Amino acid sequence: MAYDEGLSQRIREILTDQSGVVEKKMFGGLAFMINGHMSVGVIKTDLMVRTGPNGYEDALSQPHARPMDFTGKPLKGFVYVDEKGYESDEGLNQWVQRGVSHALSLPPK
After folding, report:
1. Residue whose C-alpha is closest to residue 67's, from 50, 88, 54
2. Which of 24, 47, 56, 76 has the highest count of CB atoms within 10 angstroms of its CB?
3. pLDDT tens digits, residue range 50-90?
């Protein structure tokens, strides 16, 4: 299993009304692109959130978040959130909205 399909479906439901969403296999999992920019994704059971450099430290200060470091070197502006951080619908929605907000702040590709 490269990514949690149940989590992916929950994200799809949150993004139903969001325009410009495209799913793309990325980082060994599934990424949700908005206007050509990665916003959130799923790798195994981790939620991946693109916060951008300005939202990175705040995101890391949240429970269940950690640096995205799949190569051994943390990627600034991206965090992983473990299952406890998105088990509630409210928690997942808050994280997804962080990623969506960052993607929408960038010019479309």
Report:
1. 50
2. 47
3. 999 999 999 999 999 999 987 788 889 999 999 999 999 99
